[in-house]
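Honest question from a wet-lab person: if I give you the sequences of every part of a complex, can you actually get the arrangement of the whole thing, not just the pieces? Trying it with mine:
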Amino acid sequence: MEPLFELPLRLPTRGSHQVLRALHQQLRAAIVDGRLQPGLRLPSTRALASTHGVSRNTAVAAYDLLLSEGYVSIKRGSGCYVAEVLSRRGAAKVAVGKSPGGKSAEGNPTAPPPTAGAPRVGTDPRVHSFWRNRQARRAAPVPDSLRYRFRCGLPDTSTFPYDIWRRLSNRAMRSLTHPDVSRDPQGLPALREAIAKHVSVSRAVACRPDDVLVTSGAQQAFDLLARVLASGRQTLVAVENPSYPPMRAVFEAVGAKLAPVPVDNDGMLVDQLPSQARIVCVTPSHQFPLGSAMSMPRRMALLEFARKNAAVVIEDDYDCEFRYDGRPLEALQTIDRHESVFYVGTFSKTMFPEVRLGFIVAPPWALEALIAAKQDADLISPFINQHALAAFIAEGHLARHIRKMRSVYSQRRRRLIEGLQRDFSHWLTPVPSFAGLHVAALLPGDAEEIVERARELGVGIGAVGRYCLGKPIQGLVFGYGVISERSIVDGLARLRQLR
Amino acid sequence: MEPLFELPLRLPTRGSHQVLRALHQQLRAAIVDGRLQPGLRLPSTRALASTHGVSRNTAVAAYDLLLSEGYVSIKRGSGCYVAEVLSRRGAAKVAVGKSPGGKSAEGNPTAPPPTAGAPRVGTDPRVHSFWRNRQARRAAPVPDSLRYRFRCGLPDTSTFPYDIWRRLSNRAMRSLTHPDVSRDPQGLPALREAIAKHVSVSRAVACRPDDVLVTSGAQQAFDLLARVLASGRQTLVAVENPSYPPMRAVFEAVGAKLAPVPVDNDGMLVDQLPSQARIVCVTPSHQFPLGSAMSMPRRMALLEFARKNAAVVIEDDYDCEFRYDGRPLEALQTIDRHESVFYVGTFSKTMFPEVRLGFIVAPPWALEALIAAKQDADLISPFINQHALAAFIAEGHLARHIRKMRSVYSQRRRRLIEGLQRDFSHWLTPVPSFAGLHVAALLPGDAEEIVERARELGVGIGAVGRYCLGKPIQGLVFGYGVISERSIVDGLARLRQLR
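Yes, you can. This is the full assembly:
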């Protein structure tokens, strides 16, 4: 049964790209200004296509765009719904798009009531008010037409030595039969020892195995830090703007207030930190997602800020193992003299995301509380993976794999930056960076529009604005973790059609 | 360097058991009444032995007892410390022990100052006040002298089909190379489908795969439920008394108030539920740790309570797959008609604890919020284990293993209960139960003293009081998950020396 849906749409009569753009923008406008209310089920793409005389493909593509932007969500097997999350995240302030198409979405100002089939998100008072309007961030399904995907945040696992990993996992599984396997909530001692050695070599992070807490990925590290360090509304948490939304979410969940601080090519503008900030979250090696490295004077200033204000610094070093040019800047943790830095690392980028292991190097005054919080959260991280990872590091496989991948990524990165500098310099300004798995580029126009038009050309890129709090920064993110050199070249060639 | 430690101890001159008891109780008394302050490092067992003329083994055993009771904690490589956790958990109210030995711990009323080497738990204002005094619950090291351990909460994994598990894990690892592996925060669809079928067969829990949220063990299930359902101090959470402390901890961590409700042989005394309770946590199949099953009238009354007061019920069905006698009582989730029950299951007991997978069957009105909270917590549960578990269930291995273990546990249980009834009926009253991996027995005297004396005989049993809020219930817990029939018989034979 199709839900009630009587939104008047005004669409061009020809040009499938123009139709898509108009359809997407008019739906988006209707969602933003409330004519399509949260929880409302949208018509199927088939129904939308037949009612409005557009092709089915165009309808699918329009929903895809809305989905990737978070305006709608997919319920398995029951269709597409206007997202609830918008109301909480200040959807009213989301730009509706600048092209003239956006203006034409007029009509019925009273939205139809939510239908019975809609999920009951956001209604039940038994759910904590904060969570009442929350929805999981589900990845948008990728249309087959997207041939060149500059995906961000994913490593290339095609040459990962899974055979070695399987062998080490099997060895770990055999040790499971021992009745007194370690259940240390801080993490398997052998793994903490391996991590301590690994970060001291790869990042000059000074730590002993006892300073390391093994976590179920970096996300759990953020979550534990938020629980232990933030005291609800009294805590002001300074975050870079832009920054990683899932990291921000855990601080919002404990009720902390966020203070966005701008970044430039030298990292966070430390002199703009509000003095009340008690927690400062930074990505000094490779600003996420812009890519700049925090300069040494800023690093020193940040540590001085922490010392003066009894604040702590959370240093998210998410993809720092892949460094290509320039002298490596020491980690904040390394140069800190006042036990104010929590260093967060992950194996999702150096190995594969499914390993679900990360770690915190914590100052001693907070360690015991973090371990207790970890125990509350999930008792211990998966034993088999911990055991296998300890051996994988200790036997040198991780260092070897990183070395190999650094050279692969370095080639891709060179190809990408060469291409951007050669063919796009008239409208794209790459942000200088020396590490990681993606490059960002700023532009004068509307980045969302570029992303959308790129998608029509079969090229998937990201918009910096999606990581921003408040006014979006106009920029594009090109990930090169899971795209071949060949596809980088071909994808950029397609993008040249845009300007 | 040994810390300052000048506590006068008065110990008997002979009888190693008497010396141990006196040493243990005088140290405990000194900790409880504050002469030994939280954070203070205790002397090494070697120093204690030489200063007070006791054997080293006796000193080790005394620390062991204090550790298992939570009065002290071990810091790796740096010794034994007076636990910080006591101040928060109302240590002043802990019974000091009733034997005359406890009275003799007199002397210096001013405690020595904490030494420089003590861990800085509980001091730094940058840690959230709730977490400032927290320490992880670390398992006490087991003295070699403990030959018969009636451990609670652990399954026998000696005959677990690890070869099959390895094969399925290897298959899962091979699928990792696929670039678009599922990253559904709700859990691998194939696993949710397998779980839905499994609980509908084994527990008559009615659910579809979409009602299931895969969690990183039952502990994460409790944690997510606490986050999503409890709104800080406004939420009163009713828990059985006794109950599982790590479950209670997550509600305390979000600031909720706990209301302990007594239990009897028919489960929780539902008519004693405070009407303001918004969350009710129960173990209706097998009360933890007493073992009774909630009667059907109580089940109906509890669901009616939830309906009338807009409360929710968290049904922890932690070891219900092992049922031996009596007609199975339907799960609360099965008979609920008002979407008020959250059913929590785990694979730690039916498989092995290191699998770290559990699940929630949630009513639809709360599911999306739980998934969002899960995503904040650790993005997704470990992929390889999810994948392997899905196949393990779907191919019938889990059902087969449960069947096999039910027969093994059934024998052990019969042996245990027969022994208790035959030789201990003059002072132990087993609590009737029909499921699970442990049996509890009540007694008129001091259970802690019995536990201690049993330990001296080389027999490890637990005290019900450790799971209580407020006045301890005098009872013993006999786990039979990881003890052979032979050891059950021999261990009970030793225990007969106690009375």
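Two things worth pointing out. The longest strand of chain A covers residues 257-264. The CA atoms of residues 287 and 369 of chain A lie 29 Å apart.
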